[in-house]
Amino acid sequence: MLLSWTSSQVRAAEEPLLAAGVPLMDRAAFALATRVAGLLRERRGRVGGARVVLLVGPGNNGGDALFAGAFLARRGAEVVALAIDERIHAGGAAALVAAGGRVVPAGRAAAGLASGADVVLDGLLGIGASGGLRGGAAELVDALAQRGPAGPLVVAVDVPSGIGIDDGEVPGAVLPADLTVTFGAAKPGLLLPPAARLAGRVEVVDIGLDLAGSPSVARLDAADVAELWPVPPPEAHKYTRGVLGVVAGARRYPGAAVLATTAAVLTGVGMVRYLGDVGDLVVARRPEVVIGVGRVQAWVFGPGVSPDDASQRRRIEHAFEGVRERGEPAVCDAGALELLPDRVGAHVVLTPHAGELARLLSDRGEHVDRATVEAEPLRWVRLAHDLTGATVLLKGATTIVVGAQGATYSQADAPAWLATAGAGDVLAGLLGALLAGRADDIHEDPSLAAALAAAAALVHGRAADRANPGGPVSARGVAVALPETIADLLAGA
Ligand SMILES: NC(=O)C1=CN([C@@H]2O[C@H](COP(=O)(O)OP(=O)(O)OC[C@H]3O[C@@H](n4cnc5c(N)ncnc54)[C@H](OP(=O)(O)O)[C@@H]3O)[C@@H](O)[C@H]2O)[C@@H](O)CC1
Ligand SMILES: [K+]
Fold this sequence. Notes:
The protein is of the alpha/beta class. It has 20 helices and 18 strands. AMP binds at residues 395-399, 424.
């Protein structure tokens, strides 16, 4: 699991070590230089003679870049530091000059110099940033951005300068990085859209911080998902494994019912019950599915359901009674989002995309549109959780989940090919099966619903990759890839 910590948490963890004289900056800069040297060796065979440009801001982030530059200069690189401010880390600058590097003010020629380098280290701003880049730093990054995509490798020092460290906002110009070397712990902005896509690969360097309190945003990996998975014990039977009720589809949208039930069956659950008007089609495609009412451990509501469909609406409203009275976990998707009661518990997982989340919030007096949600997704997902009580999973290139007790996840496992009709129906069925398999545990600890939602997002993305690596996928293809994807995850492959 990749955990991230806010800038104030990181600062609090640094304080006692700095007071005790622990050389944190040396550790950070050495690790940074080692990574950069590795990149240079990969790219051009050796460090000697490489052209390295440091973009240096006024704080310790610039200090890291300067000390790393000194290390690279000692290895024979040609290192130039472009200082965007009169203030500059004095010790770092002296070390660079002593090692044979140069420090020059970032003037008109700066962007040209930087774009001719083998590698650029972005040390303009780190966790001391307030707002987006200003002044000379913003001008330099703008000028570099205009030079187009080809050019030097960019390594962000701690974070790409100018991102919202704690919320992933991108308030202005940011130099997109190929690699971010981050110190002590990942920062939330490296995992959250829209900033996350500017960070490139993220490498966390351990500088010995002892981080206290809860992490801000977590990202599950395959091993975490394997641990969360409801693997049936030897004595399992279909009712102990969980029964999932699916209220989905309509004569007009039969595919959603087929996809949601197919995904649930292939994810593995004791039984899937289907409630709706297209049971004949569902059974023709998935003979394992049982039609009609009966006891269930969890629900999926909404794929292919329009709120003006009176019979499906009745079924969902009726089922919500069980969700409230007996605490049955539920996925509330698509058309069912408009049928959500005012307050529910975190055992209910909403799965909107940005437009649906904007509508849900607007219906509750927070008038936002899709673009607003996309600019600050974590903020709005948190608000939706606060307003409804539900666990909220916002679908997107990076999926964000917020649940009980502040549990927050960000998953970026899906290829862009997964943005296709029906993919959401598959996710709903997959997540519903997970909720059914762990319904008792969710009852004990509703924050588990958020972890399971993040796990579903990871499996969904991996199944899409498996269905057709590097190429287009159909929603059905993703569902069909689920059993082998899950088996691989459980085997640790
Ligand atoms: N503590 C340690 O020993 C360790 C620290 N480490 C490293 O230090 C980094 C944190 O360093 P930091 O605290 O000095 O802040 P940093 O991000 O460099 O910038 C602050 C300066 O920028 C300025 N400024 C602010 N906003 C701005 C804007 N929007 N646009 C333009 N300028 C802006 C601000 O000026 P002011 O607003 O105060 O006038 C201030 O001068 C951290 O990310 C990590 O890399 C590691 O080595 C581990 C050990
Ligand atoms: K930086």
